[in-house]
Amino acid sequence: MKKRLFSIASLMLVGVFAQAQEVTFEEYDLDNGLHVILHQDNTAPVVTTSVMYDVGGKDLGGNNNPERTGFAHFFEHLLFEGTENIDRGQWFKIVSSNGGSNNANTSNDRTYYYEVFPSNNLELGLWMESERMMHPVINQIGVDTQSEVVKEEKRQRYDNQPYGQLLFVVSENIFKKHPYKHKNIGEMEHLDAATLDEFKAYFKKYYVPNNATLVVAGDINISKTKKMIKDYFGPIPRGKDVVRNFPKEDPITEEFKVKYEDPNIQIPAIIAAYRTPGFTTRDARILDMISTYLSGGKSSKLYKRLVDDKKMALAVQAVNFSQKDYGTYALFALPLGDNTLEDLLAEMDDEIKMLQTELISQRDYEKLQNKFENRFVNSNSSIQGIANSLARYNVMYGDTNLINTEIDIYRSITREEIREVANKYLKSNQRLLLEYVPADKTEKK
């Protein structure tokens, strides 16, 4: 009884804490279509300036030419090269010499650039991001330089990394038509073959104010910040509206198998992957909860079963890799000792079968709710995190206030819905089975 009361009390406390973390913000559009979001928090003299562009790996170069992959990720690097008013190689020096830090990242759906400065350098951050949008220098020297940078990144993070090709192999098989099947980092031969004019055309199409959201968060004065934003970003001309018409995937109705050899591994892996709906849907959020239930920590069902109790696996994981148009749900395991990939698959399938036929326990349900409450609170615990969330919810979900309300969706998910969604998407006839095995290094004479 005491444990029961404690779990209820802890759930209530976290809920109250989460409610207290409401993020206030103001949003509006400039005449050129740039969406602006402002969040004022004067508790520390720090400010984040960030721009999220609605462009990612799914947006191919050359008018969606499948021979021009990796352009968005390439521009993540290229747009640090310099501008008409920032000399080549000076970007990072300017930021660091003014007490700041900066970075960028690209997914299949969006590209995000940001700077963190002492708040007295807010104007510098705004100027730099407006320079990136209005006056970038895109020339052959920069393209050649960043091409080598991207090639080295690909070698280190993917080509020479154990299991580095795993996500790529899953994506290129789960997706038959949609550009999610291509690598976000792209194929190096595609970047090498692209012309300078193709890169310039890509920038002109996607890196325009009406395809971007600017977030300023932290120690700011709202009225002064609005004036600076108008001064620096207002003169940037509006671009053409971006129109997308990606092909729809046909449903997977029969299990299919793929085998991939990786020269960088010694232990094989089994992956069961399912195509799922995009992250704006309620079902995608339920799949988030299912993945946490199955492998979110050492007390999770799959970890306890396969690693702790039966000692059949070195590692096991359930991942809901959610994207805007479609997601991929994957079960992954590495065998221990003489256990086979088939043995691991049977155990994981059995755990999924229980999800599909039985309600998870009330205790497990409360643990799930606690974890998602904590995750929500942590995501909004820093100015940098808040800026990222504001941009992401606006650009990807079309609802900035989800920074405050998405947790309510997770709170409302029922045990019955968890069972229903497991039945709907995690069927054995709707999946890819990938055997990811060591390459045969035997020399052929």
From TrEMBL:
The keyword Signal applies. Residues 194-371 form the Peptidase M16 C-terminal domain. The keyword Protease applies. Coiled coil: none annotated. Residues 36-181 form the Peptidase M16 N-terminal domain. It holds the Pfam family Peptidase_M16. Residues 1-20 form the signal peptide. GO terms for biological process: proteolysis. Keywords: Hydrolase, Metalloprotease, Protease, Signal, Zinc. GO terms for molecular function: metal ion binding; metallopeptidase activity. Belongs to the peptidase M16 family. This is Putative Zn-dependent peptidase. It comes from Kordia periserrulae.
